[in-house]
Amino acid sequence: MDITFLVAKRSTCLRRAVGALIIKDKRILSTGYNGAPTGIKHCVETGCLRENLNVPSGEKHELCRGIHAEQNAIIQAAYHGVSIKGATLFCTNQPCSICAKMIINAGINRICYGSGYADPMSKEMFKEAGVAVIKFDASRRI
Q1: Which of 29-33, 49-53, 70-74, 116-120 has the lowest mean pLDDT?
Q2: pLDDT band of 99, cuts 50, 70, 90
Q3: How far is CA 97 from CA 18, 58, 112, 125, in A?
Q4: Label partner for 42 (CA 20 to 30 A): which of 21, 69, 72, 127?
Q5: Does residue 68 contact residue 93 with C-beta atoms inside 8 Å?
Q6: Full-model pTM
Q7: Is residue 75 pLDDT above 60, yes or no?
Q8: Nearest to residue 100, comparing CAs of 65, 61, 139?
Q9: Angle at which helices 97-106 and 69-79 cross, to 10°
Q10: Which phi and psi angles does 8 have, rounded to 5°?
Q11: pLDDT given for residue 141 in this prediction
Q12: What Cα–Cα distance (Å) separates residue 107 from each residue in 31, 42, 49, 64, 84?
């Protein structure tokens, strides 16, 4: 989980820094952080549309230049031809419902996250799809 928080430091989002790792057989397959797509200006340069419009966290995800950390991790695996079927996703925050749909269809079957997120629909979808969702307990670290 420490590596996930380290990856989040690469985030270019002005609102929240999120990191994600996809792991299988005790190996890191892919990483992702939230921010603008390759070749697109970062929010640091353009400002945050969601902030300017007072959009609450967990709503209207389409009103953002950035892509979520989980999405970036899945895309990076696909871009490099790495199968993530049966893998575990570690993420600094509980995935949103948009990411949940991608995670389910990518074949990821377990999620470990650090902090919650204001999107209960994602947990409902994970439960229905049989994806294990575990809140990371920092007090149980070794």
Answers
A1: 116-120
A2: very high
A3: 15, 9, 16, 8
A4: 21
A5: no
A6: 0.90
A7: yes
A8: 61
A9: 30
A10: -60, -25
A11: 57
A12: 16, 30, 32, 26, 7
> To which H or E segment does residue 90 belong?
strand 88-93
Q: Is 124 a catalytic residue?
A: no
Q: Which two tokens stand for residue 90?
A: 């570690």
Buried b (16+ CB within 10 A) or exposed e, 116-142: ebebeebbebbeeeebebeebeeeeee
Residue 142, pLDDT score: 46
Where helices occur in 9-137 by DSSP H, the ranges are: 43-46, 49-52, 69-79, 97-106, 120-129
Length of the chain: 142
Beta bridge partners of 23: 28, 88
Catalytic residue among 45, 70, 124, 128: 70
30 within 8 A of 73, measured Cβ to Cβ: yes
* Both tokens assigned to 7: 């990856």
Averaged pLDDT for residues 74-99: 96
Measure the CA–CA gap between 129 and 109, rounded to whole angstroms: 9
In one letter, which amino acid is 76? Q
**Token pair listed for 119:** 């999107």
